[in-house]
């Protein structure tokens, strides 16, 4: 019998499966999306790090979910549905959770997840001249001069923020280059890094196009999973790595979750675990758009996102070097137009993906698609969202409610973040480059109530979902897994992805997701 079935070949699932195989386990890795065996087999839209065409609604590698950012504001939520998961279509910002993040998780009763305990997992994942040097994921920083990054960096220094040349160094937060998982212009996703080199390993079986619809539980123990075609895959242990939406969804479809909510949609309850789908955290974000006084260089292949300002109060501001219209459209050597154009060839799929989202917000983004912008985000929100089951039919997406800015503290911090972005655009350092803000009038900026309304109209999400099956000690009623990632109430079942993080990292979670996979393998194979 197979030792372990891992469900979901995303950032965490790929790392976990690979390390389990290295430790001598037989692993069946089941992925809902398409399998691509070698790095060169991935389509250009996914490989090309300079663009994010697969994140556009309607792309086949995208789950095309919809979430409610706040009451009445619905927005597309892309997630990767392909080998590599969300790492195959993300922004390639690949940074460690901070020491404060990890030690915060440990302080909640998860000492196996302190910064010191997690460091070997990060080190093992990275090939970074500054940190772990021998791992499978390349980490690099772009330090080439560019008028926008240079002016933005000078603006941050002008406002008194320190330089932060290595954002993984546990130094005080400031402005500096972001670590990126890019090599030779290619977005190196977790499947390329961890699975491709092991595809001939007898211990590893990878199956794409295999959505799992249920965890099979007998006498309180997980014994395998069932895929949508009805096939049962048995294994000694089951690990869910379906991501922060897919994992709570699959748990609930399998009868593991808040009992009343499961019964309400006709699912028989196997284990009443109230924390499944609760305590979701992410990074609410938005864009402050601006027009330049002159054309800035945008050569093909230029990465859109190379620098970030992080502040001690957990705000993040990032200058994008290209407008959305260029980031979402890729034109690759030897290929026809891809990305947006590829999607526009399937208008039906795109329209279906956008159905139910707020038309005014979609229009607002379309209207400003050629502007430049500063991305502004809250990195440690107080608000909590939910992922809830609305149907026992696995093909119906769960309801994602972010409940963004539902606390006064978050609203106050978001105002501060927007004003910080405006201040940066107004510095002497940026004066020669910035003609003006294009969509944020002074009177709105000056008035709290008006700015809150503006924020609501411009709100978006960084798609960094975490915490929907979070870990915690025995006495924690909201915990879904213990710190060994074992699901409460069911033997032989674990979760390994960003669902387990008690809070979203205050940096992008992609590197942490991989580290969760690495750490899960350690915990599963230690004697
Ligand atoms: C568009 C976008 C841009 C982003 N940009 C950044 C960035 O620049 N930096 C950063 O740090 N983070 C970024 N993120 C977030 C980051 O990529 C994710 O947090 C991280 O990849 C999540 O890893 P994971 O393993 O938890 O889940 P995922 O990587 O999403 O993997 C889950 C996998 O499970 C599969 N799956 C789900 N359900 C099932 C099922 N029932 N059966 C079988 N398979 C299933 C999915 O298809 C997927 O392959 C971005 C995310 C998106 C979507």
TrEMBL record:
Where does the record place the Glucose-methanol-choline oxidoreductase N-terminal domain? 80-103, 243-257
Which cofactor does the UniProt annotation name? FAD
Check the record and name the Pfam families matching this protein.
GMC_oxred_C, GMC_oxred_N
Q: Where are the transmembrane segments?
A: none
The record's keywords, sorted A to Z, are: FAD, Flavoprotein
Q: Which Gene3D superfamilies match?
A: 3.30.410.40, FAD/NAD(P)-binding domain
Does the record's keyword annotation contain Flavoprotein?
yes
Regarding protein family, the annotation reads: Belongs to the GMC oxidoreductase family.
Identify the PANTHER family for this entry.
CHOLINE DEHYDROGENASE, MITOCHONDRIAL, GLUCOSE-METHANOL-CHOLINE GMC OXIDOREDUCTASE
Q: What is this protein called?
A: GMC family oxidoreductase N-terminal domain-containing protein
The major lineage groups are: Bacteria, Bacillati, Actinomycetota, Actinomycetes, Geodermatophilales
């Amino acid at each position: 019998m197979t030792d372990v079935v891992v469900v979901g070949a995303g950032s965490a699932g790929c790392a976990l499966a690979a390390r389990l195989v290295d430790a001598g386990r037989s692993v069946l890795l089941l992925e809902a999306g398409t399998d691509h065996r070698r790095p060169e087999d991935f389509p250009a839209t996914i490989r090309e790090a300079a663009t994010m065409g697969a994140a556009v609604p309607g792309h086949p590698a995208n789950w095309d979910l919809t979430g409610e950012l706040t009451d009445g504001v619905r927005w597309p939520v892309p997630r990767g549905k392909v080998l590599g998961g969300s790492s195959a279509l993300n922004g390639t910002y690949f940074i460690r959770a901070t020491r404060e993040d990890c030690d915060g998780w440990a302080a909640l009763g998860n000492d196996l997840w302190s910064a010191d305990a997690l460091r070997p997992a990060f080190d093992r994942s990275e090939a970074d001249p500054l940190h772990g040097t021998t791992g499978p994921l390349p980490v690099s920083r772009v330090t080439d001069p560019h008028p926008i990054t240079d002016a933005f960096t000078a603006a941050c220094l002008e406002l008194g923020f320190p330089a932060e040349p290595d954002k993984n160094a546990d130094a005080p937060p400031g402005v500096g280059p972001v670590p990126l998982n890019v090599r030779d212009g290619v977005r190196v996703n977790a499947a390329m890094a961890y699975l491709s080199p092991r595809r001939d390993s007898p211990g590893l079986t990878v199956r794409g196009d295999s959505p799992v619809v249920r965890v099979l539980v007998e006498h309180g123990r997980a014994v395998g999973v069932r895929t949508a075609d009805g096939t049962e895959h048995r294994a000694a242990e089951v690990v869910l790595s379906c991501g922060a939406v897919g994992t709570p969804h699959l748990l609930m479809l399998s009868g593991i979750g808040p009992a009343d909510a499961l019964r309400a949609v006709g699912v028989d309850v196997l284990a009443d675990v109230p924390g499944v789908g609760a305590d979701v955290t992410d990074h609410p974000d938005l864009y402050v758009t601006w027009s330049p006084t002159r054309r800035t260089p945008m050569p093909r292949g230029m990465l859109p996102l190379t620098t970030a300002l992080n502040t001690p109060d957990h705000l993040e501001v990032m200058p994008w070097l290209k407008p959305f219209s260029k980031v979402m459209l890729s034109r690759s050597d030897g290929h026809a137009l891809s990305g947006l154009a590829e999607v526009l060839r399937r208008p039906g799929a795109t329209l279906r993906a956008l159905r139910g989202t707020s038309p005014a917000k979609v229009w607002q983004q379309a209207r400003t698609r050629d502007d430049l912008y500063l991305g502004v985000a809250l990195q440690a929100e107080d608000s909590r969202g939910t992922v809830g089951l609305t149907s026992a039919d696995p093909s119906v997406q769960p309801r994602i409610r972010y409940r963004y800015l539902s606390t006064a503290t978050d609203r106050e911090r978001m105002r501060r973040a927007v004003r910080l972005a405006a201040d940066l655009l107004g510095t002497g350092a940026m004066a020669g480059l910035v003609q003006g803000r294009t969509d944020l009038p002074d009177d709105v900026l000056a008035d709290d109530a008006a700015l809150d309304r503006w924020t609501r109209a411009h709100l978006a999400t960084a798609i960094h979902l975490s915490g929907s099956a979070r870990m915690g000690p025995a006495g924690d009623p909201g915990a879904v897994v213990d710190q060994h990632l074992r699901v409460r109430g069911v033997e032989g079942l674990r979760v390994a992805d960003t669902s387990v993080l008690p809070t979203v990292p205050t940096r992008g979670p992609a590197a942490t997701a991989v580290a969760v996979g690495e750490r899960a393998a350690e915990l599963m194979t230690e004697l």
